[in-house]
Amino acid sequence: MIRQVHERCFGGAINPLGGWVNLMPNIVVLVKRVPDTNARIVVSGDRVDLSAVKWVISPYDEFAIETALQHKEADGGTVTALTLGPADSDKVLKDAKAIGVDEIVRVWDDSWAELDSNGIQSALAQAITDLGAEVVYCGKTAADTGAGSTGPGIAERLGWASVSNISDASFAGGVTVTTPVEGGSAKVSVSGNAVISCDKGGMKVRKPNVKGIMMAKRAQVNVVSASAPSPTVTIVSQTPPPAKPAGKKYEGGSAAEEVARLLRDEANVI
């Protein structure tokens, strides 16, 4: 009689009597609320004023959601969308629910005024542990900061492998991903707990349907707490980029030579 299964990895394990035993993975996908990339950002005083912007899921996180859902479709299990933030962040979780995730969880503590990357990664790592996750997917970088530190930082805190900027994934007998290397790409087999950050690649993300949207409206967000160290890095001030110079206007055929020169020498388009 088989008493236990050894060498567990994503989607299955080696049966001690031979063969592959399917074990449904517990998958977590990180989502972040960011200003719409088309939003006009205004600096008021020495701080960015985000009071009037539209908030959306960070674009690269959409590819993480798609990869997580494909993993579930191949191996079963559950997909939990996890975010960190106040109650306003519930919207992106419900957007993820509409796309197809199973559970939505937000980690927050009202005592948190401002967290640095160390605090964010520590709190998320604790929540991931409490959720019993076996694999975590996230976007390769957030649209608002562009730091790209969350995935590797969480992996370091969990003691897990970190695989970054994947452009493709397959789930036949485990997880195999395509990741960039100098001069090309590499196929990487992932056989243990890992945090995997996702790039766009050739992946097409699914969009919510009417049923998903209606289910998301009724979905309950599970709010959990975590501990986070006090920030050691704080924003002192923010300033907008320098204003772009006014455009030049040319009329008539006599300006053609000058326009061609500007396009060649300044715009570098010809």
Strand coverage percent: 25-35%
Domains (count): 1
Largest β-sheet summary = 7 strands, parallel
Radius of gyration: 23 Å
Description:
The protein is of the alpha/beta class and 270 residues long. The chain has one domain: Rossmann fold (3-Layer(aba) Sandwich), CATH 3.40.50. The chain is 26% helix and 27% strand. It contains six helices and 17 strands. It has helices at residues 59-75, 90-99, 117-131, 150-158, 210-218, 256-265, and strands at residues 6-9, 12-14, 20-21, 26-30, 33-35, 42-44, 47-49, 55-57, 78-84, 103-107, 135-139, 161-166, 168-170, 175-181, 184-190, 194-198, 222-224. It has a seven-stranded parallel sheet, with helices on both faces. A three-stranded antiparallel sheet has the order 1-2-3, with no helix packed on it. A three-stranded antiparallel sheet has the order 13-14-15, covered by helices on one side. Helix 2 (90-99) crosses helix 5 (210-218) and helix 3 packs across helix 4 (150-158). The relative contact order is 0.17.
